[in-house]
Amino acid sequence: MWRRRREDGDGGRSDGDRAWEEFSSQAERRAPAERRAREERRGWLHWCPRLRTVLLVLLLIYISVPILIRLFPVLVTKFVYLNLAFPFFVDFHRPELLLNNTINLYLVTEPGVTVGIWHTVPSSRGAEARGKDQHWYEEALGDDHPVIIYLHGNGGTRAARHRIQFLKTMSAAGFHILALDYRGYGDSSGHPTENGFTTDVLALYDWAKARSRNSIILFWGHSLGTGIATNAARKLQEERGVQVDAIILESPYTNIRDAAAHVPITKIYRQFPGFEYFILDSLALGDMFFRSDKNVQVLSCPLLILNAEDDAIVPPHLGRKLFETAHSAYKDKTKVKLITFPKKLGLGHDHISFNLELPALVKDFLNIK
Ligand SMILES: *[C@@H]1O[C@H](CO)[C@@H](O)[C@H](O)[C@H]1NC(C)=O
């Protein structure tokens, strides 16, 4: 039909077609040629100047962030530590609003630095614990139940939801847990630094050791805290010849440089020219190393690595690599174990302590009932 009309020439065209042609040729005459050309050059952004400004600003930010980070590596420490007062409005003095069998205490870890700690006793002692003071809790630490020094990950405080869940799970499983906020976190004083964290953890270890009698003490690190756990264990071994009784690393990485190269937040910069120079090298300039891969090569205490296949923050292949490094370095291979939780459980980066099997797996590894 269309074709026939074309062949018919003008004869097949409607009045509407003609009116439209008339209208457009008038419009063309009205619009000066240069203006049309200018509009063509500007393209679609011409239609939305505000969007253009927004995109320019975003581009400027995108380019300046790596440069600023390189110039001021302290900025990258802020991104890594994320020591924000989150969750908001937590009264650290009253853990009972969030948790049973728990007391809040403070420890001076070096002159001028005081860290906040929650001590949760095994829930089997919950009834006794009600209304007791710190003296009772300190006594309880020597009751033969194993003691976990819990080293949380970056971001927020010991009151974060998944950390509370960890305390509940392990308390129900018969563990004491000492959960500290490192310097610069929560209600602790000071500023976050890698060496400072190690000092805080070792001070807490000494404090616990002085009260725990024959109980075993283990370091349990989660995420960023896994690097803190291996740092502390290594220092304990190298400077004092003391082995912590066990280390459990939940969602770990090999070292902070590797982790930064794989976490989602740096994804938009991986193609950026000089990604290593601007971002990864700045971690070292900011005094952040967290070399678990080096640390596990000198340790010899039992080491359990836990990760989840669906970890979207620290990819599980980093945990596997850490396990392989430890496994090939350890003389006694039976002391190193990797447990990977399948994707279908949906545990991800933060929720391994929500898994009901966890206490049994941990006790099995530690050879305790
Ligand atoms: C503490 O334990 C009691 C009794 O088992 C329970 O009702 C309460 O919800 C618990 N409190 C918290 C904050 O979990």
Automatic annotation (TrEMBL):
The protein's UniProt keywords, in alphabetical order, are: Membrane, Transmembrane, Transmembrane helix
In this chain the AB hydrolase-1 domain maps to 146-261
What's a GO cellular component annotated to this UniProt protein?
A: endoplasmic reticulum membrane
- Gene3D superfamilies attached to this UniProt entry: alpha/beta hydrolase (3.40.50.1820)
Looking at the record's lineage, which domain of life comes first? Eukaryota
For the region Disordered, what residue ranges are annotated? 1-34
Biological process according to GO: monoacylglycerol catabolic process; phosphatidylserine catabolic process
The transmembrane segments are 44-65
Q: Which InterPro entries match?
A: AB_hydrolase_1 (IPR000073), AB_hydrolase_fold (IPR029058)
Q: Which Pfam families match?
A: Abhydrolase_1
What GO molecular-function term can you cite, just one?
monoacylglycerol lipase activity
Protein name, per record: Abhydrolase domain containing 12B
Q: Which organism is it from?
A: Strigops habroptila
- Species lineage: Eukaryota, Metazoa, Chordata, Craniata, Vertebrata
